[in-house]
Write a structure and sequence with these properties.
single chain, alpha/beta, Quinone Oxidoreductase, Chain A, domain 1, 2 domains, 7-stranded mixed β-sheet, 6-stranded parallel β-sheet, 8 helices
Amino acid sequence: MTPPDSMWAMVFEKVGHPLVYKQVPVPEPTKSQVLIKVIACGVCRTDLHIVDGELDHPKLPLIPGHEIIGKVVKLGSEVKSIRLNDIVGVPWLGYTCGHCKFCKQGKENLCDNALFTGYTIDGGYAEYTVADARYCFLMDSAHSKAGSAPLLCAGLIGFRSYHMIDAAANNIGLYGFGVAAHIIIQIAIAQGKKIFAFTRDGDTKTQQVAMKMGAHWAGGSSEVPAEKLDAAIIFASAGELIPKALTDVDKGGAVICGGIHMSEIPAFSYDLLWGERSVKSVANLTRQDGLAFFDIIKNISINTQTAFFKLSQANEAINKFRNGEIAGAAVLLVDTD
C-alpha cells in the first residue's frame, strides 16, 4: 500500500491551548527510519507534563505521543532489522548519538544528544509516524494490539524502576497506583514479591483495585504499612512522597523515583536517609531494558486496563486523564481497520 501524501494528526502548538486536529504531510523516512501506520498510541502522564509546560523544551509544533503500536509500511534504504508489515512498538527514547561518554559506557538513557518521541521528535498522535528502526521493538502476536500501547512507556519505565531494586527485596511499596504500577504489580507478584500499594488518601476505590490485583496491603499515602518495606518505587509526581517513603523503608532500602517530573521535595532530616537508605531517579530507558521487559512478559500474562478514544478525541482523553477520571490507561485508536 502506498501511503497518502497527507494525514490527520493532533498537533501541540502552544502551552495552555488544546491540541489542534489538522491535516499535515505524511513524513518521509530517512535511510535509517521506518514509516509506521499507527494502530494506537497511549496517553502518558509525560504527555500531560509536555502540554502543560512542565517539560518546557519541546519542538514546536509537535505531534505528541510515545506509546506507539503500528505497522511498518515503508523502509529506509539502510534498514535491515525490520521488514514491511512488521508490527512494532515505539518508545520514549527515539535516538542516541553513540559517541558521548554515556553512550560509550552503555548508559544510552543518559545520552547528551538524545531525542525523544513525542517531545523533541514527532510522535504517535497521528495516522503515520517515522521512527529510527534501531529504537523500535518488534511486537509479538500477544502484544501487537491497541491495548498493549501502555507497555511502551508505563511498562518500560516501570520495569526499569523495578529492575533498579535489589533482587533480594521482598516487600515493595508502589506509591501512586496508576498504569505503571498496574503493570509492575503483575510482574512482581509473578516473581513472588509482596506489594504494598499507596494511593491518594481516601481513594478506597483504587485501593480495592490494588487488592484485587494481588497487593498484600493497600492504603493512603499518609498511612504506615504494617511491615517495613525493602524498597519503594514512587510513580506519583509528588515530591513530598520521598521523605514519606524513606520513613517506610527499612535500613538499606532504596527509594526509586520513576517519573520524569516531580514537584518540589521538602526538606527532611538526615535520620530518614541514614542507615544506608538511598534515593535514586530513573531517566528514560535503554533498548536493553525493552528487550529484557518484552522477554519477561512472554511468560507472564499482563493485562492493561484501558479506555479507548478516537484520535480526534485526544484533548478529551488528556483532560480525563489529568482529572483522574480514567481507571488505568487512555489509548487513542488510530487505525481501526
